[in-house]
Specification:
With 1469 residues, the protein is mostly beta strands. The chain contains 13 helices and 88 strands. The longest helix is centred in the last third of the chain and has 10 residues. It starts with 11 loop residues before the first strand and ends in a 15-residue tail after the last strand.
Length: 1469
């Protein structure tokens, strides 16, 4: 025999080409075979695949299925993923009762099974099989296109699994491929919270607090604020600082402007940036005591001006009777003045120093209390750096989280950011007869000479960087999030790289965490725990790679259908990358003076918002894993009343600035009108808010009780959990709670539990809400800012000259063009800050213009100091002041050297008459003629003093226009000395003093939003928004569905049909309000379109018949039909209804308007097949008949007749031989119009033909099936019908009625047929003849039905007049014949087959029979398969009156085969 040998080296099945040309090494088809891939001689050979053998039982509970598996061939292990939960709706999650699990099976005997993970949090779903699963070393990765991609460490999972409540993995955050992202910014602040021990009156400067552990938690210089920063009005609203700490007695300044009640909660805060390397503070000085007045006033005459004392500065003395830090002597206030011609400081201190100091003692003011003699940091490392801090987590699998937001720049300038506030050890002679003293203004001189501000260096060298953590202990971080290390990150302002300062282990040793108790809008009521990293100006030890620096999210998709590993990289396919954010958020941006109520001043006391800039502020939302939205801007951007997302901050004015040294700065403010990110619409990808499924998010007052008062952190009782506290925000006169807010959500509660509020009467109650788990909802937010006006220069001038500095010879008046132009000298690097325009200039050009614009910020006005301090009596000096330019800039007109401008002669000569520049004279001196310059200039007579600073060195002079500032003059007149009789008199000489201008900033074209340090939890922010808002803050229901079958003016068909109510800021449903809320529809649009529907075409209205309840109602007419476009992603006929809510919750007439979206989604209703009756007269002649067997009819679910044929698709299921499971393929087809066609029909055979009707072009979410019975030729009726009436039973006699039942029931009572009876028939009957029961009783068969399941039944209705009936008497009865398709639908009038003389009337036909044994008959044929019955009214007539024996009975048989004996062709089933 011929033999063909083929080795299938290609291991490839090929069904694409003809078998005759199939290449060697490929095969056409293989079943239960595999190709050997061994490296031996049998490579490429077929191997049989082994069959299945049960080796273990995983699922003691029924219903679970394996939906994914991975095989570890190396170790002969299998990993199985199982679940008993099934739902095609991905928005539904497994309940706590569902069993989702991951198992490991050892495929070697004895086949041990290990549970790795079990719990409903896994959310496995039979409808979402796991097709992407990989085992990589010890890590099992999988994705199911329902949850986000996940992974576990199978070794750790197995080693640590004890039970379902004690296992290594128990939350979504532990198993997700995307890691938890730290969203909070590091905090550079120390804070201590305590409570007053007694009330404090207005004007007080000390307080007694309840606690100050070891006397160290509160320190001198601490800022005092209200602890509850959610109050609309804070009681401490000015910058108030601690000046002395004596145990629990705290002294402070300034004095209180508002009284504080007993037990008032107070925060003491300070920046965590300190200087520990310098012995002295910036304003330190050494002074000689002149006298001690009283007990606490130190007088110092002719002080050394090293720096001005400040409140809180320590006073120490290095002598035998020294005052040290332990004596705690501190400055309370300082008065500076001149008394009898002698400068003097009067320093008030907080202690009695009469026994500590005497005249001529040498004291030191402002020693550094933070100085550490053993401090080991680098004292100069941070001086020239602007650094920011962040952190990231390292997880147990050595993956890293995203970087947390960076802090603001950690920078506190030296000298308290003030010129003249430090000690520079420069000397100046104040007058020809004066004393030489330290010149505390030398830093200003250095600025315009060298363009360097000597004190603009970082005074901080030790920073306590507080890392916020999501749990209160390090072990919880390790167990709950699998974190093992924390990297402390560092970034310099001018560097792109991010560096690592240190890596902190959470286990060896276990770090101790600290806490700040917050009660504000950003944090809510929260104990925030921190790891405190004490940074000592050390250098970073490594630099992060660029991929880590630019990594803003992990690129792990929301869900993915497929997964594979390529090299060492996991790759996902067919994925959804991120959720859909809100299109906008209703908020307004503003600017305000920096205040103390929030932490921005405490942490960053010298930061402020740059003026003359435009800012655009946006939100970025993120899930808990760091998947971020794009920047979301304000929905008020086009509003005529709101500022929206953009604001311009102009320069301050003299009226708004106030004391510049007391000014704290400017900040951006955000006013948010309603909660954000709460919309859940999976059709559009809007996820709503994150929920872990176990935390309380809102509360609803059910009973207000009595006897309560306003207070926060009120404990509660009841429920399954513990720790929930609330704040009572309003009560009635009887103490009934009318509004409250959630403080601490506690833990361990169950949704919808009722809790009781303690204190008061103890009978106020509320219910709580715990949303279902939503791990991919929006979790946190951060604020980002776009500011495109960026690089600019500060130009330092030695003062401005107002007008041309000459005296016109013709008029003799002072100066020309005052208020029109100003001039100044450009020195050092300042020359480069105002570049000359060198375009279109020639080689001989000496003067140049510039395109630069200047904004004057510091001016030298035309006055001198009215108070001759410091210095000898009578000495006066020039001053500089803040200048407020409004929004006006100065155009630079000319830049040239002093000689080229001819504005000042070199050398300068005073009082020279006008003349040519460089003019000379030739006087004779002795016998010689000497040529010399006259010093004349061509513009007029020179003044008595030189006009420009440093003019003899021929510097560059700048000329700029000042005409637009005519009422706000720039610079001083300098040409002559005016009278000193006026308090404000001109300097009239160039007495240089620092003046400053800003250049116009360079505008960037990059559309970049910069991350800020403002971040937080969205749910906390939303709670704060709601708690402080007097309008409607939410709806009880925000999503409805309605069927396409809904009719006009309908409210009942919406799901839910109960409508919605509105909620106030406390989360309570608004009822019985003083002023009722008004809720109206503002707009309606399709979910897939931004175009608004015209109001006259709105498909919905609001029904507000019931007070405080609104229902959706369909308009008239309706035009809904569920079509193919109604499916995802088009979602046509899904609507977004924007409702407007107007309400005044404060009852003050302050109406608040809010808007909310309601989703109204169309649902599919199964189509209806309107005629499922069996066709009659079907024969084999119908094979191939184009006219078909039956034309089916149906409608879709729409209630609109003109739309009910849209999208209908007919199809067939599996056709079987009637009453069997035997398929009968290739016999029936159905066309698009519903015509049933046949071929290959077999005579005398019945078929069950499932005819399926689907709408939405065959894609509908529901369908209808008609199991059509098609009988070919004549079929034999079932055996009980063929056998006819048994035992000659005649059921009804005089005065009785009867029922003759042809059905599939063995119930033999008179109620067996049930209702409804036709009108006129009497129920229940006196007698029942159950065809099935009677037949089985006689034949002994166990037939299952007495109904007509096939064939044609002849039914004969008989009325026997009775053999004893007298002549002339008769019997009368009325009967009805009914039909039903099966045992469930109701009975209807039966339809008889019209055939010759046979009867067709079956509904209430009366028959009469005479006596003497005469019988009246009515004969029918029935062919429709189903159940039948004959029912009657009472048998009456004169025969009954005569006492005769008439009777009613029914006979039945096979109409197609009359007279044939019953046999095997008559089915029994």
């Amino acid at each position: 025999m011929a033999e063909i040998i083929n080795t299938f080296l290609k291991s490839k099945m090929n069904q694409d080409i003809d078998s005759r040309i199939l290449p060697n090494g490929e095969y056409r088809e293989a079943v239960n075979l595999m190709i050997s891939r061994s490296e031996g001689a049998d490579v490429g050979e077929f191997e049989n695949i082994l069959g299945n053998t049960e080796i273990a039982s995983l699922l003691p509970s029924s219903g679970s299925s394996v939906i994914g598996h991975a095989i570890d061939e190396t170790n002969n292990l299998a990993y199985l993923i199982t679940t008993d939960f099934e739902n095609v709706d991905s928005s539904e999650r497994a309940a706590v009762t569902n069993k989702c699990a991951i198992y490991k099976i050892d495929l070697s005997s004895p086949y041990n099974v290990s549970t790795l993970v079990i719990g409903s949090f896994l959310n496995f779903n039979k409808s979402f099989s796991i097709n992407g699963i990989n085992l990589v070393e010890d890590f099992l990765y999988w994705t199911d296109n329902n949850n986000q991609p996940r992974k576990i460490n199978v070794v750790l999972a197995e080693q640590n699994f004890i039970s379902s409540t004690n296992q290594y993995y128990s939350t979504e955050e532990q198993i997700s491929v995307a890691k938890y992202m730290p969203y909070q910014t590091p905090v550079l602040m120390e804070r201590f919270f305590t409570r007053l021990n007694g009330p404090i009156s207005v004007g007080a400067t000390s307080m007694l607090v309840g606690a100050n552990p070891n006397g160290t938690s509160i320190k001198v210089g601490d800022i005092i604020t209200d602890h509850n920063k959610q109050n609309t009005t804070e009681l401490i609203n000015t910058l108030t600082k601690v000046i002395n700490v004596d145990g629990q007695t705290i002294s402070f300044l300034p004095a209180l402007a508002t009284a504080l009640p007993d037990s008032f909660d107070i925060d003491f805060s300070r920046s965590s940036m300190t200087n520990q390397s310098d012995v002295n503070l910036s304003n330190h000085s050494t002074q000689t005591v002149t006298a001690i007045q009283g007990n606490n006033l130190i007088k110092i005459e002719n002080p050394d001006y090293g720096g001005i004392p400040r409140a809180g500065d320590y006073i120490t003395k290095a002598a035998a009777t020294s005052i040290t830090f332990t004596d705690d002597v501190k400055v309370v206030s300082v008065s500076i003045g001149v008394y009898s011609g002698t400068p003097r400081w009067d320093i008030t201190v907080d202690k009695d120093v009469s026994s500590l100091l005497v005249t001529n003692d040498i004291i030191e003011v402002a020693k550094n209390p933070n100085y550490g003699a053993n401090w080991l940091g680098d004292p100069v490392f941070l001086e020239d750096k602007f650094v920011r801090f962040s952190y990231r987590f390292q997880y147990e699998d050595n993956e890293y989280s995203l970087m947390a937001p960076f802090s603001q720049i950690a920078f506190i300038p030296k000298q308290y950011s003030e010129f003249g506030a430090g000690q520079l050890n420069k000397e100046v002679e104040f007058s020809s007869a004066g004393t030489v003293k330290n010149n505390y203004s030398q830093d200003m001189v250095d600025a315009y000479k060298s363009s360097i501000i000597s004190w603009f260096e970082n005074d901080s060298d030790n920073i306590n960087v507080r890392i916020p953590l999501p749990y209160n202990t390090a072990p919880l971080l390790s167990s709950n999030l699998k974190i093992k290390n924390i990297d402390i990150l560092y970034k310099e302002s001018d560097a792109l790289s991010v560096k690592v300062l240190d890596t902190i282990s959470l286990t060896n040793p276990t770090p101790t965490l600290t806490v700040i108790n917050y009660e504000d809008d950003l944090h809510g009521f929260k104990n925030q725990y921190f790891y405190d990293y004490n940074y000592k100006s050390s250098k970073p030890y490594k630099t992060l790679s660029e991929s880590q620096t630019t990594r803003v999210y992990d690129r792990v998709p929301i869900k993915a259908l497929s997964q594979e590993f390529v090299g060492s990289r996991v790759v996902y396919g067919n994925y959804l990358e991120k959720m859909t954010p809100p299109p906008s958020i209703p908020y307004n941006i503003g600017v305000n003076d920096k205040g103390i109520i929030y932490d921005n001043y405490t942490q960053y006391p010298y930061h402020t918002l740059k003026q003359n800039r435009t800012y655009q502020v946006g939100f970025v939302l993120s899930d808990i894993y760091g998947r971020q939205s794009d920047v979301i801007l304000s929905s008020n951007d086009n509003s005529e009343t709101g500022s929206g997302s953009t604001v311009f901050l102009p320069y301050n004015t003299a009226a708004t600035q106030g004391n510049i040294l007391a000014w704290l700065g400017k900040v951006l403010t955000i006013s948010i009108e309603q909660p954000i990110g709460e919309t859940v619409n999976l059709a559009t990808g809007e996820p709503g808010l994150y929920s872990d499924g176990i935390s309380v998010t809102s509360i609803n007052l059910t009973s207000g009780g009595s006897g309560y008062s306003l207070r926060s952190n009120v404990a509660t009782t009841g429920g399954s959990g513990s720790g929930l506290t609330i704040a009572i925000t309003s009560v009635t006169g009887s103490g009934e709670i009318t509004s409250f807010i959630l403080n601490n959500p506690g833990a361990g509660y169950v949704n919808d539990e009722t809790l009781t509020i303690l204190t008061g009467s103890g009978n106020a109650t509320f219910t709580l809400t715990i949303p279902v788990s939503n791990p991919l909802g929006w979790y946190s937010y951060k604020i980002v800012v776009k500011q495109q006006q960026q690089e600019y220069y500060n130009v330092f001038f030695p003062g401005f000259v107002n007008g041309i500095p000459v005296i016109p010879s013709s008029t003799g008046s002072y100066e020309q063009d005052l208020g029109e132009y100003a001039f100044s000298t450009l020195i050092s690097d300042n020359i480069n800050k105002i570049p000359r325009n060198l375009a279109e200039v020639g080689p001989t050009d000496l003067e140049f213009n510039s395109e630069e614009l200047l904004y004057i910020r510091i001016n030298n006005p035309d006055v001198i100091s009215a108070a001759p301090v410091p210095g000898p009596a009578g000495f006066s000096y020039p001053i500089n002041v803040q200048y407020y330019p409004s929004n006006l800039s100065q155009n630079v007109l000319n830049i040239a050297t002093a000689r080229d401008t001819e504005l000042v002669a070199i050398p300068f000569k005073p009082n020279q008459e006008q003349g040519d520049y460089g003019q000379t004279i030739n006087p004779t001196v002795g016998s010689n003629t000497v040529t010399s310059l006259t010093g004349a200039i061509p513009w007029g007579k020179t003044g008595a003093n030189i006009s420009f600073y440093g003019a003899d060195q021929n510097p560059f002079l700048i000329k700029f226009s000042t005409s637009n500032q005519s009422s706000n003059s720039i610079g001083a007149q300098v040409t002559a000395l005016a009278s000193r009789n006026n308090a404000s008199y001109g300097t009239h000489c160039m007495a240089p003093i620092l003046s400053i201008a800003e250049t116009k900033p360079v505008s960037s074209l990059l559309d970049i939003y910069w991350e800020t340090s403002l971040t937080g939890l969205i749910r906390t922010l939303n709670r704060s928004i709601s708690n402080t808002f007097n309008g409607v803050t939410g709806l009880t229901v925000s999503s409805f569905s309605f069927p396409e079958s809904i009719t006009a003016n309908n409210t009942a068909s919406f799901v839910p049909s109960t409508g919605f109510q509105v909620k106030d800021g406390s989360g309570s449903i608004i009822v019985n309000a003083t002023t009722d809320p008004v809720v109206t529809i503002e707009s309606i649009r399709l979910v897939n379109s931004s175009a608004l529907i015209n109001p006259e075409d709105w498909p919905f209205e609001l029904d507000s018949t019931t007070p405080y309840l609104w229902k959706l109602k369909t308009s008239n007419p309706v035009n809904f039909v569920f079509s193919e476009s109604s499916l995802s992603p088009t979602l046509n006929e899904n609507y977004v209804i924007n409702v407007k809510c107007v309400f005044d919750g404060s009852n003050t007439g302050d109406l608040q308007t809010t808007y909310f979206n309601i989703n109204s989604n169309l649902t599919n209703v199964a189509p209806t097949i309107t005629d499922c009756s069996a066709p009659t007269g079907v024969t084999i002649a119908d094979n191939g008949n184009a006219a078909g067997i039956k034309d089916m009819a149906g409608v879709n679910g729409s209630s609109v007749a003109s739309l009910n044929q849209i999208g209908l698709v007919w199809s067939l299921g599996t056709v079987v031989i009637f009453n069997t499971t035997t398929p009968a393929p290739n016999i029936f087809t159905i066309n698009s119009s519903g015509r049933l066609l046949a071929s290959n029909l077999v005579d005398l055979t019945s078929y069950t033909v499932p005819i399926i009707l689907t709408d939405a072009n065959g894609n509908g979410e529901a369908s209808t099936t008609c199991n059509l019975l098609v009988s070919v030729g004549s079929q034999h009726v079932p055996l009980p019908i063929c056998a006819n009436r048994r035992n000659n039973v005649k059921a009804a006699t005089c005065g009785q009625n009867s029922e003759w039942l042809f059905a599939a029931t063995t119930v033999n009572t008179i109620q067996a047929g049930g209702l409804p009876y036709p009108s006129g028939a009497v129920y229940p009957p006196n007698a029942l003849y159950n065809v099935l029961v009677q037949s089985n009783a006689v034949s002994g068969d166990s037939c299952l039905t007495g109904g007509l399941s096939q064939g044609r039944m002849r039914l004969v209705v008989n009325l026997d007049g009775g053999s004893t009936t007298p002549v002339g008497s008769d019997a009368i009865i009325t009967y009805w014949i009914q039909f039903r398709s099966n045992a469930n639908p109701g009975w209807v009038t039966a339809t008889a087959v019209a055939s010759g003389a046979l009867e067709t009337t079956t509904d209430g036909l009366q028959i009469t029979a005479p006596g003497q044994g005469a019988v009246t008959q009515k004969i029918y044929n029935f062919a429709q398969p189903g159940e039948y019955r004959v029912v009657t009214n009472y048998l009456t007539g004169t025969a009954c009156q005569a006492g005769a024996n008439p009777a009613f009975y029914v006979d039945f048989s096979d109409a197609s085969y009359p007279g044939d004996a019953c046999g095997v062709l008559n089915p029994c089933t």
